[in-house]
Each structure stands twice: as C-alpha cells, then as structure tokens.
Amino acid sequence: MIAIKTDEQIEAMRAGGKILAHVLKLVAAAVHPGVGTKELNQIAEQEIINAGGFPIFKGYHGFPTGLCVSVDDEVVHGPALPDRQLQEGSLVGLDLGIRYPAKNGLITDMAVSVPVGKISPAAQKLLQVTEDALYLAIKNIKAGIHLGDISFTIQNEVEKNGFNVVRELVGHGVGEKLHEEPQIPNHGLFGSGPILAAGMTLAIEPMVVAGDYNLIIDRKNKAYKTADGSLSAHFEHTILVTEDGFEILTQ
Asked: Burial letters for 174-204: b for 16+ Cβ neighbours within 10 Å, e otherwise?
C-alpha cells in the first residue's frame, strides 16, 4: 500500500527537503581534486545536525556514514570511509538523506553526481542525460498517472542516448521510513503499475551506466559497482504528488 501523507507530514518533509538541498549543495561545492571523502562526510553530517536534523543513512543496516560517495564505476552505496581522495577526471555520486526534525521526524532523500575537476566529453554526456531523465520524469508526475509512466520516461531518455538504466536497484516511496512502497524501477511500460494519488511522496532516482547494466558488490566497501567497470551517474529528488502536478521537496 502506498502511503498518503498528511498536511503536517508534508510540511515536515518540505522543511527537511530544503535543508537537505542546501547541505548537498555545500557538499557538492566542496568536491575538487584531492579532497577526501571523510571531509565531505563531515560537512554533510555536521550541517544536518546543526540544522536540527539527523543524517538518516548513518547506521542504516550498519552503513557507517551519513553520506554516500560513489566514484566512477560505483553506482550507489559507497561509504565515505575509509578516507579516499578524489582524483581529477572522476565522476562522484553524492547521496544523502535527512530525518527532520531529528527525533520522530520525516525523511527526504536526494542525490547528485558531479565532476571532479575536468572530465571527458563522454562523462559529461552521461551526467547530463541522467539529470535530464530525472527532470523529464518529474515533469510528467501528477495524480492519475501510472507509476510505470515514470519508469518508461527515464528508460526511454537514457536508452535513446546510448546508455543503460540499472535494473537491480530502484527508486522508492519515502517519508515515515527511508524505503516505503512503491518500488520505482527506472525501466518499465507506459500505462503499467499503480495509479498515483495526491499526497504520495516518492524518491525518483535514475541510476545510469555507460556500459552494461549488470552490477557487482565491491568486497571491500560494499558499494554496488558496474560489472564491466563502466562509468555511472545518479540523480535523485523527493517528489510530492499533487492533484494537478508535483512539488520537488528537495530544492
């Protein structure tokens, strides 16, 4: 069952989402060649705590840091520890969630991928296509559409540009918990799946790879990686479904 949020819950998510967007912007601005992932995590965690929230990923199923930092062929779930230094030309995915207020609050989830210094034209295209796919999908959201319409839009935009969407991992409902119903694949059929209703809150997150979409799990840091070593990009927003459209809560 897909939860419908109350006005009070939506207001809490709206407030938390604004904080989250601000914090992630600060973290992204701190990305440069030579910066350590530990430093990025410290920025993220401290800023969220100072704002009255809690970095929800920290401790989630044993995850060690508040910020996920996934580099190059790492798709998602790269921990910010042990400290790694980012290298010129890499792509880095920054994934962060907040519970606001910190105690008994509501959760929003957001991700961006950014270049480390100067990147190749191919890597830049991957970033742009992934971000475009997210916003194209969001533009179609309103009460009454099928969930599969979101999935179809993402897949269509990605594949027509020569890339692939990850199949094993999905977007999700979010709010009272980090992962709620429904699961939101980045591939699917237009007109399929449950019908959206006003008050649903969804984390839409295209995860896109330059090569094959099969994944492996890194034995060292447990991050999901592309099996063929190809580059990956990841963008995410938490969205409120409204009667006649949508609201991006994480901006």
From this structure: bbbebebebebbbbbebeebeebeebbbbbb
Q: For the domain covering 7-248, report its CATH number.
A: 3.90.230.10
77 half-sphere exposure, CB direction, 13 A CA radius = 19
- Domain locations along the chain: 7-248
CA gyration radius, the chain: 17
Which pair of tokens denotes residue 117? Answer: 């210094």
At 14-38, the pLDDT tens digits run: 999 999 999 999 999 999 999 999 9
Check: CB of residue 135 under 8 Å from CB of residue 63.
no
Report the greatest alpha carbon distance in the chain. Answer: 47
When the pLDDT of each residue in the chain is averaged and rounded to a whole number, the result is 97
- CA-CA distance, 97 to 205, in Å (whole number)? 13
Alpha carbons 182 and 165: distance in angstroms, whole number: 18
Q: Got the DSSP string for the chain?
A: ------HHHHHHHHHHHHHHHHHHHHHHHT--TT-BHHHHHHHHHHHHHHTT-EETTTTGGG---SEEEEETTEEE--BS-S--B--TT-EEEEEEEEEESTTT-EEEEEEEEEESSS--HHHHHHHHHHHHHHHHHHHT--TTSBHHHHHHHHHHHHHHTT-EE-SS--EEE-SSSSSEEEEE-SS--TT-SPBP-TT-EEEE--EEESS---EEE-TTT--EEETT---EEE-BEEEEEETTEEEES--
Residues with pLDDT less than 50, the chain: none
